[in-house]
Amino acid sequence: MPLDRRSYRLLLGFPNKEKLKKYLKFTDEIPLDWERLRGCNERVKAIFSKINPVIHEDIQVDLTAFNQKIDNVFEEMCRNELFQKLTNNGRNPVDVYYSWLRGYAVCEFFFKAIAYIFEVPEASVNRIGKDDFTSVEVFKRTSDADLEIVVNDSLRYKLEVQSGYTGANDIKRTKIDRAISVKKTENIDSYLIHFDIYNGQAALYCTSNIQTKNISWTIKFENSETIEIPEAAFKWSLENKPDKYRTLVYN
User: Which pLDDT score is estimated for 212?
Assistant: First the structure.
């Protein structure tokens, strides 16, 4: 049986075996590809510059202001040295950043549309913890909502915004469980809007009302349990003006 020399590792400053192995193999540091990181910004801006003239004119956005938000993210991350910390599950920082940035961009790009769908002014749609670029915590995957929709003093909703870029569209069980929990503890309904960028369509779910008892879950990336979003749920083709949420919601 191999000897466990934990006391020796502790003297070296490595209580974790795997971290010491990576240190000794010099795989603990992933070099930053600044050209690719800047390319992430340019590609995301290019994607939405193509989408903007295609969607209904009532929900088109000011691309100059949108692009500035994307560039501000990059500048803030550089200022706070966050790129060096983007190593979720050993992934390359470029992949982590690009994956996160596309999700952030979808939320910002369709912000105006979301306000229209929920029949509130944009000032009544509040961002929840998505614009703090002083900590790497903002990039960690959570099941918490992205937005809070304030309809009036006594009615508000939580909204999760997610997107798909390859035609694969699903919802993680953790997001549904979180929505059900919020309904029980806070008496607030939660919704999830999924933008299928690949096919130019969107689906809206009331995740608080999804019945999980008889669902056959599918195991996907990072061992997450998911359900597939059926084609019938995609009631909004992005070229058209969206319906209001009571009509658009699938369940």
Answer: 86
| Distance (Å, whole) CA 52 – CA 66 | 11
161 Cβ neighbours under 8 A, 6+ residues apart = 103, 106, 107, 110, 114, 146, 147, 192, 193, 195
Q: What is the mean pLDDT of the chain?
A: 89
Task: Answer for the pair 200, 237: CB distance below 8 angstroms, yes or no.
Answer: yes
The yes-or-no verdict on residue 240 having pLDDT over 60 is: yes
The alpha carbon of residue 105 and the mean position of all alpha carbons in its chain are separated, in whole angstroms, by 9
**pTM summary value:** 0.85
Q: Specify the range with the lowest mean pLDDT, choosing from 104-113, 134-143, 203-212.
A: 134-143
pLDDT grade, residue 2 (50/70/90)?
low
Q: Which residue carries 């009631």 as its tokens? A: 235
